[in-house]
Amino acid sequence: MKKLVLATIVATALSGCAANDPNQKTKAGAAIGAAAGALVGYAVDDGAGGVIAGAAVGALAGGGVGRYMDNQQKEMEAALAEEQARHELEIQQLENEIAGIQGEMAYPYPIGKNALPHCDVFLDNGYTKEEMKLAREPQKIFNDRTFSVTATAVRIPTAGGHSESVNVEFENDFELSEVRRLLSETPGIVVQDNTDTNTYPMPIYAHGKDDVFVGRIRRDETQPNTLNMWIVADNLRKGAATNAVQIAEYLVQHQLV
Question: pTM above the 0.70 mark?
Fold first, then answer.
């Protein structure tokens, strides 16, 4: 009897996991949780009640994890779609300006021959939404709020790419050669840092590539243990979508899933 109940619970749970279902992870999590819970219940209880109870608890827990993953994916897809639409409108405005055509504008001022300290909408604290995203996302990624980030985001007349002048303060002193070595050995990072040959990152070279380019690596001479860098990437290639794929590949490669 127990085996029949166990098999029925697992089969029923798994049958609801359609590959094209927008709530696939929620259902898959519930299915996996139900199966695991049923197995635990099967092990600790002689009757079918233990199997059913274990499956119910497991389904709730697994479904909760899956629901979180579904919501995260939906938020990421919505954010990517919003960024893509905004980027396309900005490009269209710049191209219209170059061609001398009047059209819909992403900003109240020209982009060409200009630098706009206005990326996304302004918030009550005086920062833009993009600037606050720059400040909060590193903390979220590292799950660490013990460090702070401040930013001023400026729109410049390039077809694409994010360029950042980054100032980093460390707890301890460092050697520039060691910084360059660590960056050079990190997958996905390309160091372009040779002032003798005028080699440094630029959006025109980052376009269409998945790597992050780092250069102009030097000490901040105004305070100790502090580093300046110039970082450039194609934000439509090296962004949430590419990062998600690379994280998944890393997890599979290191047998973490």
Answer: no
